Design the sequence.
């Protein structure tokens, strides 16, 4: 086995950097490695071996957590491929929408604070409409993301050049950033409309 | 995590909250965001086209206290500066002034990005106005 410090999650689990992963298969690998690395088996081993089993078990848990979720998996792949921070550029329409909806959330909060029930009902209805359209957007983003997963895997399979792979990764990074804006917004709106007082 | 006194001060008494007329030719608007935390920051400047000096600045930020404080401070610093001087404001100065911890440095970067975006928007509007004026003269 390679030293822990050099291992990325994919290679640690014996995987290539493909993004389409069979979760049932991944789970099997996880459980079988968990058993093999379990610190209980190393009770009588040397201090060094014991420490190494602890390190590997913890790496295994991190790896499983990061790879089992498709979005986290894509984020992890991007970080491995040198995308250090989330893509900040967002289309201005998206930023406008995020800004406007935050204004509406603020109106809802104000209405609650003032106990203005008419205003509250109106704001709630608007936010619920927005939520429905954001959920739809999220679904669209996810299907585009999964299409990119296929493209990425194909590019690995047919040994595509660095440039072609970078194009796929750039688009993935951009899409994940849009997804993140929408996810945060959905979370904030849900919190506001579910909180009935 | 605890905020520094200066962050709290801006958070509790934010300066220059609000908006300016987005469509006015002498107003530049910068709208930027941070995808990880979902923060969005809108910063606007109103410039005197004769002197190129920023006469007014407004902001509206949805985000954490540090993001609000960074943009509030930025509007304070912008007023009275020329457009070129505005571009010289560095996020590190904001970090220093507000004692931002390392995990909040991105908030100051966001404020710097917002300033640059607002100035860019203003400059673009100006060059468009000049072009229309030239076209009018040449017509």
Sequence:
């Amino acid at each position: 086995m390679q030293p822990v410090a050099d291992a990325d999650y994919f290679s640690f689990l014996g995987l290539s950097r493909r993004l389409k992963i069979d979760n049932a298969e991944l789970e099997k690998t996880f459980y079988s490695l968990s058993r093999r690395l379990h610190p209980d088996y190393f009770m009588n081993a040397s201090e060094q071996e014991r420490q190494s089993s602890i390190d590997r078990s913890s790496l295994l848990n991190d790896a499983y957590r990061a790879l089992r979720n498709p979005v986290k998996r894509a984020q992890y792949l991007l970080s491995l491929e040198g995308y250090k921070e989330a893509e900040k550029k967002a289309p201005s329409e998206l930023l406008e929408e995020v800004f406007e909806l935050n204004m509406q959330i603020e109106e809802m909060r104000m209405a609650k604070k003032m106990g203005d029930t008419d205003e509250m009902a109106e704001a709630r209805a608007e936010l619920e409409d927005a939520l429905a359209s954001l959920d739809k957007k999220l679904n669209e983003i996810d299907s585009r993301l999964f299409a990119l997963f296929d493209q990425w895997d194909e590019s690995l399979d047919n040994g595509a050049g660095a440039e072609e792979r970078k194009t796929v990764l750039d688009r993935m990074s951009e899409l994940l950033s849009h997804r993140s804006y929408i996810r945060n917004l959905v979370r904030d709106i849900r919190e506001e409309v579910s909180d009935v007082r | 995590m605890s905020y520094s006194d200066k962050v709290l001060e801006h958070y509790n008494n934010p300066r220059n909250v609000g908006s300016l007329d987005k469509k006015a030719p002498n107003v530049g608007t910068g709208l930027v965001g941070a995808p990880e935390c979902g923060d969005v920051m809108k910063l606007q400047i109103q410039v005197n086209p004769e002197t190129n000096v920023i006469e007014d600045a407004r902001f509206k930020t949805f985000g954490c206290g540090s993001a609000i404080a960074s943009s509030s401070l930025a509007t304070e610093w912008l007023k009275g500066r020329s457009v070129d001087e505005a571009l010289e404001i560095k996020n590190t100065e904001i970090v220093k002034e507000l004692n931002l911890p390392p995990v909040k440095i991105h908030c100051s970067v966001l404020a710097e990005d917002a300033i640059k975006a607002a100035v860019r928007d203003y400059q673009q509007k100006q060059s468009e106005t000049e072009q229309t004026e030239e076209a009018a003269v040449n017509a």
